[in-house]
Write a structure and sequence with these properties.
Largest sheet: 5 strands, antiparallel
Strand content: 35-45%
Number of domains: 2
Oligomer: single chain
Number of strands: 9
Amino acid sequence: MYIIFRRIIPFFTRAFLVGLFLSFLMTIFDIYYSTKSPSLLCVQVTNIKVWLYDFEEVEDKGLREFAFVTMDIDGDFTSLFTFNTKAIFVSVIVEYETSTHKRNQIMLWSTTIMKNSITRIKSHKTLNKYSLYDITNSFNGVNGTFIIEWNVIPKVGMIKYGRANSNESKFVCAFPMINNNTSINV
C-alpha cells in the first residue's frame, strides 16, 4: 500500500506541473496574439423617446426623465475568436457629460456570444434592455455618444477589454427635451 502511493504521487505532481506550464504558455501566446479588433462595428440610433416617470421607490419621489432608445447594431466579432476564447460579452453604452458630472456611462444593451459559428450581430430596431435615466433627473438636451464595447473571456488567462475607437463606430446625438412625451427621430 505504501509503495503504490509513493509511485502515484510523483505522477500526479508531474501531470499537474505540465498542465500548469501549458496553461502559462496558452496565456502568453494569447496575450501576444490578442491585438486584433472587430472588422465591422456600427451602432445607429434611429429614435429616442424621453418620458417623465415617477419613481415611487426613490426617496425624493420626484419626476425623472426616462429615455427609450431604438437602435440598429451591427458587428462582426470573428477576429476576436482564438483557440483560447470561451465567450465574448458585447455591450452598447452611452457616454455624456453634464454640468454636475464630468463623465456618465450607462449600459443600454448587452449580449454574450458563446460560439465561434455565431460571431456576427445584426440587430435592427433594438430597444435598450436596461433603464436609461440620469442621476440629475433630467437629460437637459445633452449630447450622448453611443459606443460598442466588448470583453473577451478566455478559457485560461486574463479578460480582455475593447471598445470602438473610430468615428465611424460611434454615434453622437442629443437627447431631446421633454415636451408632453414627444419623441425625436434621429
